[in-house]
Design a protein that fits this description.
alpha/beta, TIM Barrel, 238 residues
């Protein structure tokens, strides 16, 4: 069974929109955990427009499930991660002004950049994951970085789901996931996964360990409520 890590960036964005601390990111995270979420994800960006660096420290000290911190590994980000020591750090090559993550790493051309970053995470006892497009040719280079896992960037899948491209696209994810397993890497996935498309993805990807879901899940909670939404995700994954 793949685990569900809930990305609470949208909760933080709602909080920041009024300049106060409501909704409280920690309280919502704790409630999500009570409903069955297996982990919490945040992706603090340099401008802290949603999740703030301070949220990382607060969450680490006050939740009893896996904390996954995503981000572009600039020096400030890495310093924070190595202080907080989350269970997992997912490296994402997003530009500072990106609205949301929009591509995986080119591990072949960034191998020398990524290797010392992964080594630093390992020295601090932090499991590492590299955001990756559904491209099996990148997997050997991802493995050479020393990373523990990859996270499949699933926007391409989500866009193709329900179209005549669906089977062609999911085949690329299956091949990439299989290559990762062959190279001894764990497989995570995230971006635009939802209650509508997750079942098909989960059924087709062998070895899937964890999904990180935020935007769709928060929107679905508006209609279904927190308890029911988390219950339905857990039901799909199990």
């Amino acid at each position: 069974m793949a685990l569900l890590s809930v990305n609470v960036n949208k909760i933080a964005l709602l909080r920041n929109s009024r300049g106060a601390d409501f909704p409280n990111v920690l309280k919502v995270s704790q409630d999500l955990i009570k409903c069955g979420a297996h982990g919490i994800t945040i992706h603090p960006r340099p401008d802290e427009r949603h999740a703030k660096y301070a949220d990382a420290y607060t969450l680490k000290e006050n939740i009893d499930v896996e904390l996954n911190i995503e981000g572009n590994p600039n020096e400030r980000f890495l310093d924070m991660v190595c202080e907080v020591k989350p269970n997992q750090c997912t490296l994402v090559p997003d530009a500072p002004d990106a609205i949301t993550s929009n591509a995986g790493w080119d591990c072949k051309n960034n191998l020398d950049y990524l290797k010392p970053i992964i080594a630093r995470l390992k020295e601090n006892g932090i499991r590492s994951s590299i955001f990756l497009d559904p491209d099996p040719s990148q997997v050997p280079f991802a493995a050479q970085t020393g990373t523990d896992r990859i996270e499949l960037y699933t926007e391409f899948f989500a866009t193709s789901y329900g179209t005549d491209k669906q089977n062609e696209v999911i085949a690329k994810y299956k091949t990439t996931a299989a290559a990762a397993v062959e190279h001894g890497l764990g497989v995570n996935a995230g971006h635009d996964l939802s209650l509508e498309n997750l079942k098909f993805f989960d059924e087709n990807i062998d070895g899937l360990l964890e999904v990180s879901i935020g935007h769709a899940l928060v929107v679905e909670m508006l209609y279904k409520g927190m308890d029911q939404t988390i219950l339905e995700y857990i039901s799909i994954l199990s």
